[in-house]
Amino acid sequence: MSPPANISFARGAPSLDIVAVDDLRAAAERAFSEDPGGAFSYGTSAGYGPLVSWIAGRHGVEPEQVIATNGSMQADAFLFQLLVEPGDVVVVEAPSYDRTLLSLRGLGAELLAIPLQTDGIDVDALEQALDAGARPKLAHIIPNFHNPAGCTLSLEKRHRLIELAERHDFVLFEDDPYVELRFEGESLPTMLELGGAGGKVVYASSFSKTVCPGIRVGYLVGPAGIIADCRRIATGTYISPGMVSQAIVAEFCRSGAINRSIGMVKKALHERRDVLCAALGRDLPDARFVVPEGGYFLWVDLPDHVEVSDLEALARERGVIFVKGTDFLLEGGDSSLRLAYSGVPADQIGEGVGRIAAAYGDLVGTTT
Ligand SMILES: Cc1ncc(COP(=O)(O)O)c(C=O)c1O
What we know:
The structure is a single chain. By secondary structure, this protein is an alpha/beta fold. The chain has 2 domains: about 120 residues, Aspartate Aminotransferase, domain 1; about 240 residues, 3-Layer(aba) Sandwich (Aspartate Aminotransferase, domain 2), CATH 3.40.640. It has 13 helices and 14 strands. An 8-stranded mixed sheet has the order 2-9-8-7-6-3-4-5, with helices on both faces. Strand 10 and strand 11 form a beta hairpin. Helix 1 crosses helix 10, helix 4 crosses helix 9 and helix 11 packs parallel to helix 13. The longest helix has 27 residues. The mean pLDDT is about 95. The structure holds pyridoxal-5'-phosphate. Pyridoxal-5'-phosphate binds next to helix 4.
């Protein structure tokens, strides 16, 4: 087969071949025949009851501590609407998920960007900022297989962040859509689990990466008071989230299809990660990166003199796209890029990297 005209490492989304379409169809049929009343009515802003209970069981919390939403972006939006007022300081990681930065900026938050290290946010730098007088309301942290950086927050840093949140009285927002996608290494406890009775952690996750993004189901878990407030905002926003989607996801989870789906997705991502790292090592030896142990993303640093915006334009002409590092940072990132390997089947990754390497050769004047 001839290689595709365009290869996209740009979107943090799965390729269709790793969506469990048959299991989803079967879950939909069962959901519609077994609970048509629940699936086809408005429901409440808490979300579809059986799904809320499943999520509560999964995280060992009470159903009152859960709100299931239309994707976790919606959950984030409710939490931000509740907690963030213009001028409030919010800690973000540098780099971080571009949509989070945009939503927080849209609310008028003052963003305090703390650099990421290979084991997550630089907690010493955060502590120094707090000791120097910073008073954040909220800290947004992506603990596992970071978007865009690919790194994972160490256990020690998870503990230290909880301590800092308690000592300096801010909410720790653990944004964790990739947690189930570890294909290498040991799983770490969530800060929600470690936080215990402290009540400082609000946790978000999603079925976008374990079922499919089009289903638009995500959720928030946190202290019952915060969740009750989010439910009130949700009622005013949309009465209730999409019950049809949530009923399908509930049945997908209840039947165990979710575990098969996660297994399939992890296997494919593992292979794609391996092929991508090998191709970068072979064709683009100037690339520096942390090898992700799960998830969708690999962050590449190129030598400082390389303008990735120029590389992006040349790569696009050669039929390959990715996202520039600058999109994920308030400043800097000019020589970095994010490669999402979730959407590119393994047999196209080598071709895609070859095109980036050829564009790099055009830019720096040599083929590497
Ligand atoms: C860190 C992070 N948070 C939130 C989201 C939003 O996910 P959802 O599809 O559940 O809205 C994403 C999606 O890529 C993400 O990477």
